[in-house]
Amino acid sequence: MNADEAGAATETALRVEYASHGGVATMTFVAPRANTMTEALIDALLGGIAQYAADATAGVAILTSGGADFSSGASFDELGTLFNSDATRLVCDAIDALSKPVIAVLRGKVFGAGLEIALACDWRVAEPSARLGLPEFAIGLPPGGGATQRLPAIVGVERALDLILSARHLVAAHAYDTHLVDELYDPGVSDDLIQLAKRWAGRRRMRAAAISQRAPAWLADIEARRAGFRARRCTEGVAVCDAVEAGLKEGARAGFDAELRGYLACESAARYRAIRNASRVRASVMTRGLASDRHSGSSQRSVLKSVVMIGDALPAMPASTWAQQTIQVSRYADVESLRAFTRSDPFVVISRAFGQDGVERAIDAVVSRAADATILVVERAEVQPDASPDRVHRSASLSSKRGGLAFKRNARVVDAFAYGHQADSVLQCMRGNEADPFVLERVVAFSDAFGMLCVHGADIAIGPSLIDDWRRAVSVLRATAATPDELDAAMVAAGLATLAITREPTGPSIDARDAQDTSTRAPDVAMHDVLRCALVNAGARMLDNGDVQHPDDIDALLHYGYDVPPESLPFGWGANQFGVVKLHETLRALERAYGAEFTPASMLVRAAARAA
Length: 612
Prior knowledge:
The longest helix has 19 residues. The strands form three sheets. A seven-stranded mixed sheet has the order 11-10-12-13-14-15-16, sandwiched between helices. The protein has a six-stranded mixed sheet with strand order 1-2-3-4-6-9. Strands 5-7-8 form a three-stranded mixed sheet. It is of the alpha/beta class. The two termini are 54 Å apart. The protein has three domains: 195 residues, Alpha-Beta Complex (2-enoyl-CoA Hydratase, Chain A, domain 1); 157 residues, Rossmann fold, CATH 3.40.50; 148 residues, no CATH class. Helix 5 crosses helix 6 and helix 21 packs across helix 23. It contains 24 helices and 16 strands. It comes from Pararobbsia silviterrae.
């Protein structure tokens, strides 16, 4: 190790520095990797809090961090293994037990366990760089350090549930607007932080107090949310609802106990392990097909500085998302509104709803004002079970115009579909957009900034087409093998309730079994397993046709786009997968009983032959 490396190692060595002067104590913690929360850092923080408790000269303490970030929370790779979020409770409980106030000074990343510790403090001061959030929910865990009780008491039940269940981040200004932070502090402009602390000396707030909102309306809303989570087998969502409800009904202590029970149950569940795998795969799905030497992994802030939306190609995203507040976003209702448009190197989103002529006029208008624009033309694709099976979600307009439009005036144009169970949560780039990897990198950055999964390839909307193919097989079962109630129960058992049929699709007649022996005995397979087999087969057919590049892409869009639980996904993430030989045998039996809708895809036939 040379001198520079030794200096860097010393700089990031884990420690908590305690100092006291003029009645104000400061506890500054420093840890590697953006002050990642670890068991060792917890122990060090407990030592600092004990010093403050014993310091008779200090009437108020400032809890802050060294470096650019307050704390990025627990490491993704260590969460649930080397570090458990419920360990944060030790620090939060120690702060609760103090008779003197603590002020958290927040900067940079304030995520997960870092935010939970800040919530336990009496006051929160945020620098402009602060971004606050509880990302655990996105990987299958509820908060474990008391956030289900403290956050509703601070910002209200509705805002707290939104922040926890969405796993979104708030920038400092929005956190101030929602009362999550008490003061905005700019070190280069504001009064001295010590003077600010003296204003709050001796002013303790109620900590670990009962949630104040007890209106029955909140309990009804929580119950409705919980029912939805149960239908999707989202155990972490159920755990959050249970904990918040316990706090509303019985007080914070009961809520803390319910939160801990839920956290420990989710941490040991197979769903959590599957979601961790899903999160790891998401990045490869987002960047699949991008040239590795061009994709640098840079953040959306450096690649994407301004976004212009023309029409309603995408819905209005929540304004509180931190990434959007670091990107300049402008909206125009139509092409005529673009007269005032002036941007440098913008990312422009145009709705396909304007029609071919309208899209071309919009592109002309944008390029005439910003020749270096990157343009994303988006068509919304919904699941339409009554679509004709030979043209399901194929877009003739998108494929036919590409050669004349994509390079018009050297504009960088990408065609895409937007779809998903919730507000257009999947963005699929069309095949033929691979010529400029940098353009696709910007599309990925845009998707990431707006919370969308980006999938690449195909001339059809993969998600709606996949679900439509699967639903045709389900319709055969509905007509020949099970009652609607039995199928609905099987959907829930299979974890596929979010894909349930609302209308009967047209297409191959579900009553046309003239060529089959109607006395054929149905295979002895549970209906929920039949539904899973049909979904695997539908995905395998898309892989056969080259509509999808990789099985992970199918799993990703079903999970992130349609809320299919990870343990129910057809390919690599599921915890209850069929072996390929058994899958092939089951599909052959279903084919004999119910017809061609269950004929195994070619890739499954080949895989079964290799495995046999």
